[in-house]
């Protein structure tokens, strides 16, 4: 009553043993593919973590640099500016991780929060009554009167270009892990499990436990079993090309590190622009929001403090170099895995599974 290992000679197998063999080959095939996938998956997961750590380091550095700008040059508003600064960098981090937000909304929300502080602490430092209604009016007016000139829009443009590639790379790496996980659990068809049993276990029914499959025979069986997985080859190659493109974009003119480290300077230029145009801004705000209560004799022009970079750049350079090196290592490794799905049958038939150094092997019917 054997269904798979039928042979003219006497056999030591039963139908129940064949069923056990089918369960065994399913389990073994999953384990074999998991073992092949392990290195690839380990590299991708490792680089997701490494990229994230290097990115967080850059982000912390950029945030500290921005905070120190307010503490050194704009002390009257430093305490109140801390929360908008923190929100801006949190939004940037969430954007990179794939959250449903945009760089533009994050940057403009920051400048909306910043304008009431700049107006009441630097342009008109004599304002004593800053009610919620007046603050909200200043926030809404920011969009119409554009107190920060082109600097706010420039910041959106620069950050959008550089952060887009990082966001896409982060999503692409997660997608790569998803693809690999899916291939590990691809169903083994009935025909495949029968073919694998015939190749690996039918010799045992003849007492031939040391005979292994012939190389060509193994390749034919594995290619048939892995046809659906091998179909991923074209898409996987395209995926590697996309990763290459994204890492090049990150390292090219839209450099993430340069954009993040330049945030403090964009904000400084924007605030200076607003201060220099203080009288015109005050006239417009008075028409739209009304005149708040003021102390006498305060001159806003005395508060203009041009600032030069005073923060040390060593931690930034280390994070920058670290991120560049990780990108280079990663893409070189991924390029070597370009043929991963095309060669999966060859890799499974390599090693202990087949007979390579002997003149005899199993061809599915007999020892040859």
Account of the 3D structure:
The protein is mainly α and 368 residues long. The chain has one domain. The chain is built from 15 helices and no strands. Helix 6 packs antiparallel against helix 8 and helix 10 runs antiparallel to helix 14. The two termini are 26 Å apart. About 4% of the residues have low confidence.
Derived from helix and strand composition plus strand pairing, the structural class reads mainly alpha
Task: Domain count, please report it.
Answer: 1
Q: Report the β-strand fraction as a percent range.
A: under 5%
Helices and strands, in order, run as HHHHHHHHHHHHHHH
Per DSSP E runs of 2 or more residues, the count of β-strands stands at 0
Assembly level: single chain
Radius of gyration: 33 Å
The helix count comes to 15
| Low-pLDDT ranges | 297-304, 306-311
Helix content: over 70%
In short:
This protein has 368 residues and is mainly alpha-helical.
Write the layout of secondary structure elements.
Elements: H1 15-73, H2 75-96, H3 103-123, H4 132-145, H5 151-184, H6 190-200, H7 202-205, H8 215-225, H9 227-230, H10 233-251, H11 256-261, H12 263-276, H13 278-289, H14 314-336, H15 344-348
Helix pairs in contact: 1-2, 1-5, 1-6, 1-12, 1-14, 2-3, 3-4, 3-5, 4-13, 5-10, 5-12, 6-8, 10-14
Which tags fit this structure?
15 helices; 368 residues; mainly alpha; lipoprotein
């Amino acid at each position: 009553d054997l269904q798979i290992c039928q042979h003219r000679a006497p056999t030591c197998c039963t139908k129940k043993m064949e069923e056990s063999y089918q369960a065994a080959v399913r389990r073994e095939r999953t384990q074999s593919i998991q073992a092949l996938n392990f290195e690839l998956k380990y590299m991708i997961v490792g680089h997701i973590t490494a990229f994230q750590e290097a990115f967080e380091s850059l982000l912390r550095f950029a945030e500290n640099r921005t905070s120190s700008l307010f503490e050194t040059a704009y002390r009257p508003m430093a305490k109140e500016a801390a929360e908008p600064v923190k929100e801006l960098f949190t939004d940037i981090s969430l954007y990179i991780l794939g959250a449903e937000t945009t760089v533009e909304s994050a940057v403009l929300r920051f400048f909306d929060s910043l304008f009431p502080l700049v107006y009441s602490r630097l342009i008109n430092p004599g304002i004593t009554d800053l009610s919620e209604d007046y603050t909200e009016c200043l926030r809404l007016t920011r969009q119409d009167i554009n107190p920060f000139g082109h600097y706010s829009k420039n910041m959106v443009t620069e950050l959008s270009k550089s952060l887009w590639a990082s966001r896409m790379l982060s999503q692409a790496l997660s997608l790569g892990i998803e693809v690999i996980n899916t291939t590990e659990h691809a169903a083994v068809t009935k025909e495949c499990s029968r073919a694998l049993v015939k190749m690996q276990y039918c010799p045992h029914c003849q007492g031939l436990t040391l005979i292994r499959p012939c190389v060509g025979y193994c390749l034919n069986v594995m290619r048939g079993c892995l046809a659906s997985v091998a179909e991923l080859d074209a898409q996987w190659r395209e995926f590697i090309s996309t990763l290459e493109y994204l890492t090049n974009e990150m390292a090219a003119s839209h450099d993430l590190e340069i954009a993040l480290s330049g945030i403090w300077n964009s904000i400084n230029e924007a605030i200076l622009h607003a201060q220099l145009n203080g009288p015109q801004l005050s006239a417009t705000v008075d028409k739209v929001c009304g005149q708040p209560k003021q102390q006498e004799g305060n001159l806003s022009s005395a508060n203009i403090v041009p600032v030069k970079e005073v923060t040390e750049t060593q931690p930034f350079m280390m994070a920058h170099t670290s991120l560049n090196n990780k990108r280079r290592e990663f893409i070189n490794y991924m390029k070597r895995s370009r043929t991963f799905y095309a060669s999966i049958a060859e890799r499974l038939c390599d090693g202990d599974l087949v007979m390579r150094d002997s003149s005899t092997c199993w061809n599915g019917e007999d020892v040859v």
